[in-house]
Design brief:
heterodimer; B: 134 residues; alpha+beta
Chain lengths: 459, 134
C-alpha cells in the first residue's frame, strides 16, 4: 500500500469582485451616457446635412462605401501584418536554444468534474521529456468521481526521466482562479505551468517553453493550443480557427513579446512575476486574459512557444460553442474594463495600450463591422437585386482565408484537410461567432448576470 | 444560366440561414441557461483545503533505472587539449586501464596459421620463412 501524507491547507485570498457594487446605478448611468452621445451625434448630422450638397440617401451610400473600404483595408493590414510578424517569430525561436537551463517546474491542474478524462491528462504529463517537475491536482469541489480518481493518482509515478511526484488539493468549489492560486501557493517551484484538466500536453511542452525564461524580463510563456476531438464539423472548424486565427496572432504578438492572452490550457509563469501581480483574480470570467493584461501592465514580457502544445477538447455542438464564446467575450470585455485607464493613457505603458486596443478591436469593433457588411450585402441583394455583390465579397474573403489557411497549416505542420474549411470559415463560422460576440457585448453592456458555463466532456 | 447568379443565390441563402441559425441558437442558449448562478464573494476569504501528497522519501530522490541521455553543452569547442604528462598529479587517481604495468600480458598466441597439420602458431610452423618454388 502506498504511503500518502494528509494535511490541512488554509487558502486565503482577497476577492475583489467589483462587478457587484452598485450595479443597477452603473448600468443606468452607462445607458444614459451612451444615449446622450448618440443623440448628440444624430443632432449634428441632422443640423449639418442640409448645409452640404449631400442628401440623406447619398450620405448613407457614401458612408457604406467608405466603411467597406476601411473594413477591407483593416482586414488586409491585419492579415499580412500577422503573417509577417508570425513568420519572423517562427524563424527566431526555431534556432534559439538554452540547453543548460533546467529549473524545477510545478504543473498545476485545476479540475472540476473532470473524472472521465483526468487519467488521460496525467498520462500525457508523465510522458514529458523533462526531469525536474511535479504535478499538483487541485480538485475544486467536484461533484462527480473526480476526487476518487485523483486520490488514486497521488504518489510517485514513473515518468520518462525519473519518478514524478503527484499531489492533490481537495478544496470547496470557488472557481478556477482560486483553484489555480491554491496550487501556486502549495508549490515551491520558481516556475509554474498552469493548464486545464481536460488538456493533454505534448512531450516537449516544458523543455521548449522553459527556454524563454532564460531572459529575466520574460514573465510568462503562452502555449500552442490545438483541438483534440476532431472529426466533427464544428470541431474541425475550430481546429482551423485555433491554427489560423488564434495561434498565428499569438505568434505575431510574440515577436513584440506582447502576447495578449496566455491560454488556459497551457501557460508557463515565473513565480516572481505571478506573485508580483497578486496571482489570479476571480472578478472576471476570463482569468487567463486578466492575468496576461496584469503581467503586461506590471512591465513583464510574454512570449509564445509554438512547440509547447496543449491538446484540448473543443465544444462539439453549436450551443456548447456559443456558451464558450459567450464567456470568452464577456470575460475579455471585463478584463479590458479593469484596465481602462491604460486604454486611454499610452504614456504609462505603450505596449499594453496597444494590446488593449487590439483586444477591444477584436472583441467589439471587428464583429460589428463583419455583421454590418453582411447585413449590407443581404439588403443590397434583397432590396435592389445586387446579388452578385455578395458573391464577390464572399469570393474575395474566401480566397484570402484559403491562402492564409495554407500558410498556417504548413507552418504548424497541421492536417492539410483543414484547408478545405477555409471556404466557409468566414461566411459561416466567423459570422456565427461574431453574432455571439455582439450579443455578449450588449449583455455585458447591460450588466446581465452570467454563469461559468461548464462544458460537457466526451471522455 | 450563368454560374455567378447561381452561386450568388446560394451564398445569399447561406448567409441569411447563418444569421437565422446564429440568432436562434443564441436565444436557445439563453433559454437553457435560464437560472444563471453567479459566484458572489466579498472581502477576504479563507478556505480550508485538504492536501494529499506522497510520503517523503527521506531526502533521497527516487530515480528510476531507465538511463537518461542528456545533452552536454560545449561552451568552447575549439579549446586546445593540453597533453597530460603526470596522470597522478592531474586527477589524484588513475584508472587501471591507464596505469603502467597493470595491463595483463596475454600468454595465448595472437595469430594462428592454417597448415596441412591443422591450425598451428607461427613459431610451430616449420615452413615459415622458407621460400617455396613451384
Amino acid at each position: 500500500m502506498k504511503k500518502v501524507k494528509k494535511s490541512a491547507f488554509e487558502i486565503t485570498y482577497k476577492n475583489n469582485n467589483h462587478l457587484q457594487k452598485s450595479r443597477k446605478r452603473r448600468i443606468l448611468r452607462r445607458i444614459l451616457i451612451s444615449g446622450l452621445f448618440s443623440a448628440i451625434l444624430i443632432g449634428i448630422i441632422l443640423y449639418t446635412l442640409p448645409k452640404t450638397v449631400l442628401s440623406f440617401s447619398s450620405l448613407l451610400e457614401y458612408s457604406i462605401i467608405v466603411a467597406l473600404v476601411i473594413f477591407l483595408l483593416i482586414l488586409l493590414i491585419r492579415y499580412f501584418g500577422i503573417l509577417i510578424l508570425a513568420y519572423l517569430n517562427l524563424n527566431k525561436y526555431t534556432f534559439e536554444m538554452h540547453d543548460d537551463f533546467h529549473p524545477f517546474v510545478s504543473i498545476i491542474i485545476p479540475v472540476y468534474n473532470e473524472g472521465k478524462i483526468l487519467n488521460n491528462t496525467i498520462e500525457s504529463l508523465l510522458k514529458l521529456n523533462y526531469s525536474e517537475y511535479e504535478i499538483i491536482i487541485v480538485n475544486d469541489g467536484s461533484t462527480d468521481d473526480t476526487r476518487e480518481v485523483a486520490e488514486k493518482l497521488v504518489g510517485y509515478r514513473e515518468g520518462i526521466e525519473n519518478a514524478i511526484k503527484i499531489s492533490l488539493i481537495n478544496k470547496p468549489n470557488s472557481g478556477k482562479a482560486n483553484a489555480l492560486n491554491a496550487g501556486i501557493k502549495m508549490s515551491g517551484a520558481e516556475f509554474v505551468l498552469c493548464m486545464d484538466g481536460d488538456s493533454q500536453l505534448s512531450p516537449e511542452s516544458i523543455s521548449m517553453g522553459i527556454r524563454h525564461f532564460a531572459d529575466p524580463k520574460i514573465g510568462a510563456v503562452a502555449g500552442n493550443v490545438k483541438v483534440l476531438n476532431r472529426g466533427n464539423f464544428f470541431t474541425d472548424l475550430q481546429a482551423l480557427e485555433y491554427v489560423e486565427g488564434l495561434n498565428m496572432a499569438r505568434s505575431a504578438q510574440s515577436y513584440l513579446k506582447l502576447v495578449n492572452i496566455i491560454p488556459g490550457p497551457l501557460g508557463l509563469f515565473r513565480r516572481e512575476a505571478i506573485e508580483n501581480i497578486g496571482c489570479y483574480a476571480n472578478d472576471t470570467y476570463a482569468e487567463d486574459a486578466d492575468i496576461t493584461l496584469r503581467l503586461l501592465a506590471g512591465g513583464w514580457k510574454i512570449n509564445y512557444e509554438p512547440k509547447a502544445i496543449s491538446y484540448t477538447e473543443a465544444p462539439e455542438t453549436l450551443l456548447q460553442l456559443l456558451k464558450q464564446r459567450y464567456r470568452w467575450t464577456r470575460g475579455i470585455l471585463q478584463s479590458i474594463r479593469k484596465h481602462k485607464k491604460l486604454l486611454i493613457n499610452p504614456t504609462a505603458n505603450f505596449g499594453n495600450t496597444f494590446i488593449l486596443w487590439t483586444m477591444f478591436f477584436e472583441a467589439l469593433i471587428w464583429p460589428t463591422m463583419n455583421i454590418a457588411a453582411n447585413v449590407f450585402f443581404i439588403f443590397a441583394a434583397l432590396a435592389f437585386g445586387f446579388t452578385s455583390l455578395i458573391f464577390f465579397w464572399w469570393a474575395g474573403l474566401a480566397l484570402l482565408d484559403l491562402v492564409t489557411a495554407i500558410y498556417c497549416v504548413a507552418a504548424e505542420k497541421e492536417e492539410f484537410r483543414l484547408v478545405a474549411y477555409a471556404v466557409i470559415y468566414r461566411m459561416v463560422f466567423i459570422l456565427i461567432i461574431d453574432i455571439c460576440k455582439a450579443m455578449s457585448t450588449v449583455e455585458e453592456f447591460l450588466g446581465i448576470k452570467m454563469s461559468w458555463g461548464k462544458l460537457e466532456r466526451a471522455g | 444560366m450563368e454560374l455567378i447568379p447561381i452561386l450568388s443565390t446560394i451564398i445569399l441563402v447561406a448567409t441569411i440561414s447563418t444569421f437565422v441559425l446564429a440568432i436562434g441558437a443564441y436565444i436557445l442558449y439563453k433559454i437553457q441557461e435560464g437560472k444563471a448562478d453567479r459566484i458572489v464573494r466579498k472581502g477576504m476569504e479563507t478556505e480550508q483545503a485538504e492536501v494529499m501528497e506522497p510520503a517523503d522519501l527521506g531526502g533521497r530522490k527516487l530515480v528510476l533505472e531507465t538511463p537518461v541521455t542528456k545533452k552536454t553543452v560545449v561552451h568552447n569547442r575549439y579549446r586546445p587539449v593540453q597533453p597530460v604528462t603526470d596522470l597522478y598529479q592531474r586527477t589524484g587517481r588513475v584508472s587501471s586501464r591507464e596505469k603502467p604495468g597493470l595491463r595483463k600480458k596475454s600468454t595465448e598466441p595472437k595469430f594462428m596459421k592454417f597448415t596441412s597439420q591443422g591450425y598451428v602458431t607461427t613459431d610451430e610452423d616449420q615452413n615459415s620463412g622458407t621460400i617455396r618454388w613451384r
